[in-house]
Amino acid sequence: MILYHGSNTKIDSINLAMCRPYKDFGTGFYLTDLKEQATGMAIRVSRIYGGTPILNVFEIQDDFRGLQEISIKDFGEQTTEEWARFVMNNRNRFFDDIKHELCNQDNKYDIVIGPVADDNMTLLFRQYENEMIDFSTLMKGMIYKRTSSQYSFHTEKSIRFLRKAGS
Questions:
Q1: How far from each other are the two terminal CA atoms of the chain, in whole angstroms?
Q2: What span, in angstroms and rounded, lies between the C-alpha atoms of 116 and 118?
Q3: pTM, 2 dp
Q4: Nearest 10 degrees: CA dihedral of 138, 141, 144, 145?
Q5: How many angstroms separate the CA atoms of 31 and 50, rounded?
Q6: Which of 32, 46, 50, 110 is the 20 to 30 A CA-CA neighbour of 10?
Q7: How far from 81 is each of 31, 85, 92, 97, 125, CA to CA, in Å?
Q8: DSSP track, 53-115
Q9: How far apart are CA 97 and CA 116, in angstroms?
Q10: Residues 106-152: tens digit of each pLDDT
């Protein structure tokens, strides 16, 4: 399977210490199987931080989901209540039940797969957190959102399954 990481720098070696916390699935190295999505991210990152857009290409064995030695949380392609709570918990700097199964701030999952919470969903999350909408309204708002895909790698163990395939 081919995965892409859009950046403003060529990545030959993944350093998890460089990854930012409080992202959708926790601190990790994020990729997508959608080339267009990664290309757009590379352009966005280079506009913000400077440099040239670079599409980093990685490979992982097709049957990685069946590997027994790593823990994988796979939400599939659709937004769900479980996915929404997981993303909100990981993004929340004050969430303190990090051992909860719907949180990955402790990297209990080596790899997490699922939809991206885009800016529109972030707005819905913020409205829910500020008690402007209830949870059922949040869920109804997510039904009509087109999502894109992300694969996040959170541990050195999971990074070892990625092979650089080009830039």
A1: 16
A2: 6
A3: 0.88
A4: -70
A5: 20
A6: 110
A7: 23, 6, 16, 18, 12
A8: -EEEEEE--TTGGG-TTS-EEE--SS--HHHHHHHHHHH-TT---TTSTT--TT--SSEEEEE
A9: 23
A10: 999 999 999 988 767 778 888 888 889 888 888 777 765 556 889 99
Tokens of 129: 């957190």
The whole domain housing 91 covers: 2-166
Tokens of 109: 């999952």
Which of these, 100, 82, 92, 124, lies nearest to 26 by C-alpha position? 92
Name the domain count of the chain.
Answer: 1
Residue owning tokens 């039904």: 143
> What is the spatial distance between Cα 38 and Cα 33, in angstroms, rounded to a whole number?
8
- Among candidates 1, 160, 157, 4, which has minimal Cα distance to 71? 157
DSSP SS3 for 32: strand
What pLDDT score does 145 carry? 55
